[in-house]
Every structure is written in structure tokens, then in C-alpha cells.
Design brief:
It contains 16 helices and seven strands. With 365 residues, the chain is an alpha+beta fold. Strands 1-5-4-3-2 form a five-stranded antiparallel sheet. Strands 6-7 form a two-stranded antiparallel sheet.
Length: 365
């Protein structure tokens, strides 16, 4: 436990720094000794300024976060992850969890992700050390338990999981726009609030997308699991997905190893797969790599960049859904027809996929 004084440190110059320093103090029990006003003064800002940035980054104020850290201290540490923080992640309702969590469960890489009835768990790669997030859908929020190496990473962990679950989407606007299409309207009305399942790490998803080229979901998981067992970094009972390895170790065709080599080199140099990257630039860079066709590029745009308008007209599930709805089935014709769904084609894809009986569309009982 730190010893707190009334001395005020230099003013914090960035919101991220403010939140990180506040979180560290709250994890250390600062509010057990003084109030929120004293915390803000210690950080060199006003109470309202502190409240605004904590709520923006974490969805909770200082008192709520202090209680969360207190509750977490009553939980056993998860190996080297010594800080347990239970939080509620809010969202704009409605939220349809079936395809969201169903996708994460069906595509989970053994050793990195797992589903234990409830919750869905996976590792996170954070600035100050690894973490594990456990996420459970509730009617009005996502119940999250973050197991952290360092409490300064809490805001980054929250941001990654909010992106993963597409929690900042505006479902009313998206559903209203898509329901203007008479063929999509029944699908939207049946399951309002569909989200786009994404990723917590763009390079990880790109590697997994290459492993999943022209193979089944089960085969892609097997390839990824072998990669994790050989090159992954242990984190408590799970692993961080490896972002650097020798493609020659992959039991895949030579052409796939060539594609993977090109991707790993691009990730080291030119391509930015973070949510703030420009989708047009990323698409152009990826299309120039050997073995990167439209399906792989659009999958990465959808899940790694969070592009709400990515589209997969060559996907088998989309073709089958299109045929069942009376939509065109050739990629060119379907793409023209899908212009009416802009700028929400990623969400239209979720509705189309849900017309099939596939495990990605349901949460296991």
C-alpha cells in the first residue's frame, strides 16, 4: 500500500495519462483514505474533469471504480494477474447476443479463448503486461471481470473489449436504415440490435484469417491452436496469441506459408491494423500481398478495423443466404444490390449469416 500525502504532483497533460494515474491510485486504495475531491487535487485537475474522463474511458466514476477494486481484492489472484476488477460495460440497447457471443465461442482458439458455460474468456495484450477478460452478456450490460498485471491497463482493456463486442454501435440507427430494404426488414425485426463480432488485436486476427483461408472453422481453430501451443506466451491458464513465428512451422500448403510470410513482414513494417487506421489504405496494402483476396481483406476490415461497411459477397454463407432471400448470388450483382445497405453492410452480413443453421449464430446451452 502506498503512503499518500497532500502534495500535488505536476498537472496531468493527457486524458490517457490522467485515467492511468487515477486507476493506479484507486487500485491502491486511495479513496479508502480521502475523498474524490482530494483525488482530483492530487492529480492536478478538477473533480468534474476527473469524473468526465473516467466515465468516458471506463463507464464509471471514481467511487464505482474504487468499489470494483475493493471487490476484486477479495478474489484470488489469477497466477501473475494480481489485480481483479469486476465492471459493468454499458451499451445502447437493444443488443442481440446470439451471433455476437456465438461467433466468439465457435471460432475460439484453444489456449487463447474459452467458453465455460458463462463467461467467454480470452487473453489481452496490454501496454504494461498481459491480462485476461471474462465477459458475460446480461440484459442491460456486459458483466466483465478483468484480471490485470497492472491496473494502469484497465482503460485499454475496457476499450479492447468494447471494440470486440461492438458495444459503441447505435443499433436504432443501423436497424432503421437496414429495415428500409423489404428483404432485410424481417431479419432486422426478428433480431434487432445485432452487433459485429470483432477482435481485441488486429494483427492476431489477420494471422487467424490467413490460417482460415479455404478451410473449415474447425480446421482453422486446429491450425491456430497448434501455433499457440508452439509459440504462444503463457498467461495464467491461457496464452497470448503469437504475433511473431516462423511460417515454415505451419502445417499448411506452401502458398499459405508464402502468404503468412508476407503478412508478418507487412505487420512489422507498413500495415496498421488498429481501429483508427484508414480502411482504404489498409485494403490497398493487403490486396498487394500475395494470397490476399477479397474475402480475407474484407474480413480484416470488418473485424480488425471495425469498418461498418465491409462486405463479403464471395462468402459461401452469404451466397446461400442471398439465394434463400431471392437476392442475386453472383458477387458483382450482389455487391450492386448491397449498395442500398451502405454504410452498414457489415451489419447486413450478420443478418444474412444468421439465416443459416451454423454454430456461430447461437450461444451453446
Amino acid at each position: 500500500m502506498h503512503h499518500f500525502t497532500s502534495a500535488r504532483p505536476p498537472a496531468v497533460h493527457s486524458p490517457d495519462d490522467l485515467v492511468a494515474r487515477a486507476t493506479l491510485l484507486l487500485a491502491d486504495g486511495f479513496l479508502d483514505h480521502v475523498g474524490t475531491t482530494a483525488l482530483a487535487a492530487h492529480l492536478g485537475c478538477t473533480t468534474s474533469h476527473l469524473r468526465h474522463h473516467l466515465t468516458t474511458a471506463l463507464g464509471a466514476d471514481a467511487r464505482t471504480l474504487s468499489r470494483a477494486f475493493t471487490a476484486g481484492r477479495a478474489l484470488p489472484p489469477l497466477g501473475p494477474l494480481t489485480h481483479q476488477v469486476p465492471l459493468r460495460l454499458p451499451f445502447r440497447p437493444p443488443l442481440h447476443p446470439d451471433n455476437l457471443f456465438g461467433h466468439l465461442i465457435a471460432t475460439a482458439v484453444p489456449g487463447v479463448e474459452e467458453w465455460r458455460d458463462n463467461p467467454s474468456r480470452r487473453t489481452l495484450r496490454l501496454p504494461h503486461g498481459p491480462a485476461i477478460a471474462a465477459l458475460t452478456p446480461r440484459p442491460d450490460h456486459i458483466a466483465a471481470l478483468f484480471s490485470l498485471s497492472d491496473p494502469r491497463d484497465l482503460a485499454t482493456a475496457v476499450a479492447q473489449c468494447r471494440f470486440l463486442l461492438d458495444l459503441d454501435a447505435d443499433p436504432d440507427t443501423i436497424d432503421t436504415d437496414l429495415a428500409q430494404d423489404p428483404l432485410l426488414k424481417p431479419l432486422v425485426l426478428k433480431a434487432p440490435g445485432r452487433r459485429v463480432p470483432r477482435t481485441v488485436n488486429g494483427p492476431e486476427f489477420a494471422i487467424r484469417a490467413v490460417l482460415g483461408q479455404q478451410v473449415s472453422t474447425a480446421a482453422a481453430r486446429t491450425h491456430a491452436a497448434r501455433l499457440v501451443q508452439r509459440f504462444g506466451t503463457p498467461v495464467a491458464d491461457l496464452h497470448l496469441f503469437p504475433l511473431s513465428f516462423d511460417p515454415a512451422a505451419l502445417a499448411v500448403p506452401t502458398s499459405r506459408r508464402t502468404t503468412m510470410t508476407a503478412l508478418l513482414e507487412a505487420l512489422e513494417s507498413e500495415v496498421d491494423l488498429t481501429p483508427t487506421a484508414d480502411p482504404t489504405t489498409v485494403r490497398a496494402t493487403l490486396h498487394a500481398l500475395p494470397g490476399f483476396g477479397p474475402w480475407t481483406v474484407e474480413s480484416i476490415a470488418m473485424r480488425a478495423l471495425g469498418d461498418p461497411d465491409a462486405f463479403l459477397p464471395t462468402d459461401l454463407g452469404i451466397k446461400l443466404a442471398a439465394a434463400s432471400l431471392g437476392l442475386p448470388t453472383t458477387p458483382a450483382a450482389l455487391t450492386r444490390r448491397a449498395d442500398a445497405w451502405r454504410p452498414w453492410r457489415s451489419y447486413a452480413v450478420q443478418h444474412l449469416w444468421a439465416t443459416g443453421d451454423h454454430e456461430v449464430n447461437r450461444i451453446p446451452l
